[in-house]
Amino acid sequence: MFSKILVANRGEIAIRVMRACRELGIKSVAVYSEADKNALFTRYADEAYEIGKPSPSQSYLRIDRIIDVAEESGAEAIHPGYGFLAENPGLGEECEKHGIKLIGPKSSVIEAMGDKITSKKLMKKAGVPVIPGTDKGVSDPDEAAEIADSIGYPVIIKASAGGGGIGMRTVYEEDELIRAMESTQSVAASAFGDPTVYIEKYLEKPRHIEFQVMADEHGNVIHLADRECSIQRRHQKLVEEAPSPIMTPELRERMGSAAVKAAEYIGYENAGTVEFLYSNGDFYFLEMNTRIQVEHPITEVITGVDLVKEQIRVASGEELSCRQEDITIRGHAIECRINAEDPLSDFAPNPGKITGYRSPGGIGVRVDSGVYMNYEIPPFYDSMISKLIVWGMDRQEAINRMRRALSEYIILGVRTTIPFHKAIMKNEAFQRGELHTHFVDEYRRGIDAEMQKIVKEDQEMVERLHSTFLPSKKVAAISAAIGAYMHSRRG
Ligand code: ADP
């Protein structure tokens, strides 16, 4: 087992990994940018090293600096978290050269699965169902029109190198095809340095259902059931739950075996997620994420397996601590991503200082966050500040508990997505489990109206609670009351 691990990330995921280290008796090393000098994770770590300017390209993406710190501090392994270098095969290659263990799959696997065309081809070979369409790059307009015709509209044009919901465009009729192709190609070239695009069938109102897989270096591969992440905005997940409300033991068996087959075929190691789109009883491989995901806690909550500790153990050469038959699911979990964004202004980022903070608690509530009272959220990174995760005996209890926990969550100073989550939890279609990836668009009006009401109510509540945040006000009020009482006595 390792004695020291460097965490090449920031925010809540850095703390999540360091928590696992602490439980395993492993020392943790933080690397941070100038902008994160006061961030919680730099204090939580046993050692912390500044590695550069706020811009990620000058700090969190600097493989050379990170490797230097690992060597200087004597860390034997690097955990990349998610985002930043997590799916950059270059980090693994450099680690190998320096005799440092990367906590994740092999670089060649990260590279293959990072390219949508390559991964689709591999999955087809592995016998995993893929979305109908091409599995090669298309640049000739006539060929594109022919392909789209044979698949049938609507189609989606995707950048092979795409990620994070960027480089995708839906096309409903032939007239739009060429323009959509050109624009996706140029987005892909500027965002990913690779203009290759391909075409596939656009599934209307699919559900996003993914499977957590875990593999060791001895050929053991298991899945840890499913998560549904259909509540998205601009292809970005906002609410996740486990298990999917439509899951049955038969469907789980079919999808779970496909996920395991996918991982086995490519010689996967460590934690990964196989994402599927589900539509009308059929499911199709979407992509594989070769890292720990934001939404991993909901799987931990229903299976009891600490995925990050398992990642560390497996990377140190140990066998998986459980077999497929040991994995059982208990109850239901939901996660809401709390972002510093204004949901009433088209989710505009809203960084700034947190002037009041109280996180929820009580039975079945977990908060994974990297913020604290008086913390200044820097504007340079993604806007997620915390994840609120709840567990319930069943889905209804989880929803009720999430509503209760959201009502307790107080974050002052910056606008957050809490009102959005309150509105989603109250939505009747959500409560019935009728989810699809366009849910937020479909119910936009109702959600917006509900949010307006919620924001007003929240403001009133905050005013009532103000004294707990600003004791001086309370003190002043009490002393005024005492003063008035004394005066009346004297009279
Ligand atoms: P990224 O890698 O950028 O996150 P994905 O390929 O994982 O992109 O797709 C993200 C989301 O885009 C999916 O969850 C789904 O909502 C939507 N999507 C992608 N492909 C299709 C498709 N063929 N039909 C319908 N929706 C799609």
Total number of beta strands: 22
Specify Rg, calculated over alpha carbons.
24 Å
CATH architecture identity of the largest domain: 2-Layer Sandwich
- Neighbour order of strands in the largest sheet: 13-12-9-10-11-14-21-19
Count of discrete alpha- or pi-helical segments spanning 4 or more residues: 17
Helix content class? 40-55%
Bound molecules: adenosine-5'-diphosphate
What is the CATH H-level superfamily of the largest domain?
Answer: ATP-grasp fold, B domain
Q: Remind me, CATH topology of the largest domain?
A: D-amino Acid Aminotransferase, Chain A, domain 1
CATH class of the largest domain: Alpha Beta
Task: Give the total of domains.
Answer: 3
Oligomer: single chain
Instruction: Tell me the structural class.
Output: alpha+beta
How does this model look, in words?
With 491 residues, this protein is of the alpha+beta class. It has three domains: 4-103, Rossmann fold; 132-201, Dna Ligase, domain 1, CATH 3.30.1490.20; 207-457, ATP-grasp fold, B domain (D-amino Acid Aminotransferase, Chain A, domain 1). It is built from 17 helices and 22 strands. The chain has helices at 11-24, 40-44, 63-73, 89-97, 107-114, 116-126, 141-151, 174-192, 249-265, 296-303, 307-315, 395-408, 418-426, 428-431, 439-442, 444-469, 471-490; strands at 4-7, 27-33, 47-52, 77-79, 101-102, 155-163, 166-171, 197-201, 207-215, 221-233, 236-242, 270-279, 282-289, 332-339, 341-342, 348-349, 352-353, 356-358, 365-369, 376-377, 384-392, 410-412. Strands 13-12-9-10-11-14-21-19 form an eight-stranded antiparallel beta sheet. Strands 3-2-1-4-5 form a five-stranded parallel beta sheet. The longest helix has 26 residues, at 444-469. It is globular. The structure holds adenosine-5'-diphosphate (ADP).
